[in-house]
Each structure stands twice: as structure tokens, then as C-alpha cells.
Write a structure and sequence with these properties.
single chain; YlxR-like_sf; 98 residues; two-stranded antiparallel ribbon; globular; alpha+beta; YlxR family protein; YlxR; 3 helices; 5 strands; three-stranded antiparallel β-sheet
């Protein structure tokens, strides 16, 4: 070998809120369980997933555009209360730690 190290490509996903591509690690995976959007921070829940930045702005855009229903191929409207609570808690926790 020539001694060069290979840079591994990190997987990218598209945020359903702002439609920007970002590294998979920067986005929050969302899964539909029954009639609700559930956050999947570890990425291990079964089923189809959608990705969103863990920011209230992107979450609001996704809800307004009905992006979760489309991306998760849900038959009807999805409840996003648990998801909103999770995003708000993580945003507050990030702002609290310097």
C-alpha cells in the first residue's frame, strides 16, 4: 500500500422539512407507529423511516407540508405531539450545555 488512508464516505439522508441533504448522524429518524410519529434516535425501530433535523424549524416545515404522511406512506394524518416534545427537549438540552 502507498500509506494513504481512505476516507470513508458517510451515508447522507434528506431532511423532509428543509429538503437539505445532511449526514445521517446529524438527522433524527422518524417512524410511524400506529397513528403517531415516533422519534427513533438510535435508528433501530422497524419500519419505514423519514429523517428530519432535530430543530423546531424543520419540524414545523415538515408538518406544514404533510411530509411525514407522504414519506412514511401513512394512510391518514399522523400525530406529532411526541415528536415535537422530543425535539423541544433536545433543543433545550443542547442550549443548556455550553
Amino acid at each position: 500500500m502507498s500509506g494513504r488512508t481512505r476516507a470513508r464516505a458517510c451515508p447522507e439522508r434528506t431532511c423532509v422539512g428543509c429538503r437539505e441533504r445532511a449526514a445521517k448522524a446529524e438527522l433524527l429518524r422518524i417512524v410511524a407507529i400506529k397513528d403517531a410519529c415516533v422519534p427513533d434516535p438510535r435508528g433501530t425501530l422497524p419500519g419505514r423511516g423519514a429523517y428530519v433535523h432535530p430543530a423546531p424549524v424543520c419540524l414545523d416545515q415538515a408538518v406544514r407540508r404533510r411530509a411525514f404522511t407522504r414519506a412514511l406512506r401513512a394512510p391518514g394524518a399522523l400525530d406529532t405531539k411526541a415528536l415535537r416534545r422530543y425535539v423541544e427537549q433536545t433543543t433545550v438540552a443542547e442550549q443548556a450545555t455550553p
